[in-house]
Amino acid sequence: MLEMSYYGNFSKSEFESLPLILQRFLSYTQYDTTSDPQSPDFPSTKAQLAYAALLEKEFQSAGVRETRVTPYGIVYGWIEATKGYEEAPALGLIAHMDTSPEASGAPAKWKVIDYAGGDILLNKEKDIVLSLDRFPEVGKYAGEKLVVTDGTTLLGADDKAGIAVLVETAKYFVDHPEIPHARLCFCVTPDEEIGRGTAKFDPQEFGATYAYTVDGGERGGFDTETFNAAMVTAHFEGLNVHPGSAKDKMVNAIRMAMDFLSRFPSESVPEKTSMYEGFFHPIGITGAVRGVDVRMLIRDHDNVKFEDRKAYARKVAEEMNKVWGGRVTLTVKDQYYNLKNYLEHFPKVCDIAREAFRRVGLDIVENPVRGGSDGCRISEMGLPTPNFFTGGLNFHGVYECLPVESLIKSHEVAVELGKMSAEVTTLR
User: Of 58, 168, 191, 192, which one is the catalytic site residue?
Assistant: First the structure.
């Protein structure tokens, strides 16, 4: 387990009595691995590279002898197939090490609480409350133990809970050589939160025939459908002169940006859509009168509607250029595609997971993911990779929390997938 210097609301001895998977996860939260979307480097932060080296030792201490860290901070590990099962399709499990830059990733000040229901006071001094009015899903976990923070950082369950599942699963099979299994492949990637998690991922080096990302939310979640995703970047070229003499001269790029955004449907935004409804989502504006840059996400599950949304953005730019004299430059870049597009060709991969859930006594929940995962790009590379839960709630913010039982159940699913790997003969 990685070095600990903070034990939350436990003494050191009390901490050491906790389930080992929980100890691992809590130790991982003490490392700041926030990714940086502005950095040109890979990984985007040096902290991730340092953390990758620690994870290599973590896998080795769990008994995974074959491990390596690439120059890009990707951690690979392997457990060879049980004798007689060398020809079975190799199983892969994938998690990511970075946390979202949308909230502080500083070492989390966590505590484990016996949750009795209702609102949770995270920080009395700062009056930070995890409210059921805002996060009603937390109420379902009354009567369970929850890991929460003091409300000043995110927790990092996305996706350090997934890493804990991978390491504990590897340790399980090392400790139980009598249980037959196919080759087991483990991978931890950097920079997933900024859309670069698979940029340097090599499916051949990884070695799996099929895989699962352990990067989902609530307990029981199994993800086989995601958004199609594109990034729109719009530049508005203004002309700045002194406002006292600006008549018929100034071209205000800020007003151009406002005009651009006003042309998109006001109901087709994240805060007003759910399930299969796509959206346009402005996520950043920078600049001044002389020039403004706008970044906007386009998301839709439906392939045709996705193309229509991109075409709509281009049409808006064309119309604006007629009005503003060609001062709008638009770039539309695809980011990833619906996971369903690829998994349809490998139905067995999803059936295996559904059976694993059944065997550990979990009701499976399959809803369209209003986001994506590394599995989208990995599946596009030819390695079918759906996603299943870690159990975490309220990702990417200071109200993030993790029901302990959910983390344990995620590990049980991963172990069951490993056991079932010895039974797999085909993925189609």
Answer: 192
Residue 11: CB atoms within 10 A of its CB come to 9
- Is 192 one of the annotated active-site residues of the chain? yes
**What is the value of pTM for the model shown?**
0.90
Burial readout 260-290 (b: 16 or more C-beta within 10 A, e: otherwise): bbeebeeebeeeeeeeebbbbbbeeeebebb
95 pairs with which residues across the strands? 188
Q: What is the pLDDT along the chain (428 residues), one digit of tens a residue?
A: 798 889 999 999 999 999 999 999 999 999 999 999 989 999 999 999 999 999 999 999 999 989 999 999 999 999 999 999 999 999 999 999 999 999 999 999 999 999 999 999 999 999 999 999 999 999 999 999 999 999 999 999 999 999 999 999 999 999 999 999 999 999 999 999 998 889 999 999 999 999 999 999 999 999 999 999 999 999 999 999 999 999 999 999 999 999 999 999 999 999 999 999 999 999 999 999 999 999 999 999 999 999 999 999 999 999 999 999 999 999 999 999 999 999 999 999 999 999 999 999 999 999 899 988 889 999 999 999 999 999 999 999 999 999 999 999 999 999 999 999 999 998 88
Domains and CATH numbers, the chain: 12-225+339-420 (3.40.630.10), 228-336 (3.30.70.360)
Active-site entry in 98, 191, 215, 400 = 98
* Backbone dihedral angles phi then psi of residue 215, each to the nearest 5 degrees: -155, 25
